[in-house]
Design brief:
Length: about 140
């Protein structure tokens, strides 16, 4: 069994992470899950959420926006719409987006076409603020 895994996180625009890790946790459609070296192969979808990877006891927190997570032969490939390291998140911008989404949702009902769009925007903003806070505590 391998002691490390390779983690690649890719967006449509660039490869965000390409490193060796000891463990990874992420937010799947069915809940949070973790992967250690030697994990059985699997493929799952990700929802808006946090991904944490550890290497030599140091944790890196990231905000992810929808995608797929695949484990195969001690290599993890994560394909997502967006991925931001905690220290790269503009907290003020995220808080502003959170406020805009909350205001828009107050004016809509769940039947409105825009409701799901603003609901997802609110979820993204909340995750970004939470993840950014974890990056500040390092």
């Amino acid at each position: 069994m391998a002691e490390k895994m390779i983690l690649e996180i890719v967006t449509p625009y660039k490869k965000v992470v390409d490193t060796e890790v000891d463990e990874v946790t992420a937010t799947g459609k069915l809940g949070e899950f973790g992967v250690l070296p030697g994990h059985a192969p699997f493929l799952t979808s990700l929802k808006i959420g946090e991904l944490v990877y550890k290497n030599n006891g140091v944790a890196e927190h990231m905000s992810l926006n929808w995608g797929y997570f695949e484990v195969r032969e001690d290599k993890i490939i994560v394909l997502v719409e967006t991925a931001e390291l905690a220290e790269d998140i503009d907290v003020e911008r995220a808080k502003a987006a959170l406020g805009r989404a909350e205001e828009a949702l107050k004016k809509l009902t769940s039947e409105d076409k825009q409701f799901k769009i603003y609901e997802a925007a609110l979820e993204r903003a909340i995750i970004r603020v939470q993840v950014a806070g974890k990056g500040m505590r390092k």
